[in-house]
Amino acid sequence: MRAERLLRLLLYLQTRGQTTVAQLAQALDISPRTIQRDLEVLSLSGVPIYSIRGRRGGWALLPDYRTRLTGLTPSEVMSVFVGATAHVLADLGLDASSELAVTKLIASLPEATRREAEYARQRLLIDHAGWDDRRETPRWLDLTRQALWEELRLAIIYADGTEPFEVSPLGLVAKARTWYLVAARTDGRLRTYRLSRLTSAELTSTPFTRPPDFDLATYWAQSQREFQASRPSYPITLKVRDHAIRRFRPTTPMLPASDGWWILHTDLENPHEAQAAVLAQAGAAQVIAPPELITMVREAALYIATSH
Prior knowledge:
Blueprint: H1 2-16, H2 21-28, H3 32-44, E1 49-52, E2 58-61, H4 74-82, H5 86-91, H6 95-108, H7 111-123, H8 141-150, E3 152-158, E4 165-175, E5 178-185, E6 190-194, E7 198-207, H9 216-230, E8 234-241, E9 255-258, E10 261-268, H10 271-279, E11 285-289, H11 291-306
Antiparallel strand pairs: 1-2, 3-4, 3-7, 4-5, 5-6, 8-10, 8-11, 9-10
């Protein structure tokens, strides 16, 4: 446990640079006193770590120091070598580099761990896309990535707009096969833009300062929560046959009803979507609630029966 904690501390300093004890304690979820002891342990162990005094002080590693990690566990090896998302790397033009990097990483591992890595790569593949996914051509991906790296503003026209406006790109997010740009407007508000809906994008020569407290993963998680909360909600209760369950997403644990039938609660966006979803099951889904949906399904089924 302590060795793992020390390794996390060392890696954090190696990737983030000079950091205060308070920042380390918050990032690693460890008490400041424990952080202080661990820093002293690392120093006594020969790690070139030093403290900087004063208001802008903290702890840091010597600039050229890098640790070699050869103690990967089998589960850690599997997570590294199986979890790559190939289509994202291909979109970024990094698929060849990724394969070369994996080859180098495997070659640097001890013999036993190398066998674990090769074993996992030959037997497990993670495909994050669904069967009905349509891959979007990331037309503006290279330009937005350049703006991100060089910290230059972009002038974009979005969706049905006609006038360009400037944004400061803060991050790119690949969700399944769709790319999104997270950017700050000139008034400081953060917005998310789907790259495929950009009708124009131009790199400007105007630099911007990235907000020091912005964290892409935190923003994206909050953005998804807000999106889910803002979606229309139409809860329904159904009686569904075994083979039709996969057509719905239960919001609570299902209950057995009778031979091959289950009581299922789910949530759709509106009554018409619910009506279409039930009718598409050709009798394998029956509405229990709400009453208005029962009426809608009956009327639609009667119309279908009398018109054929």
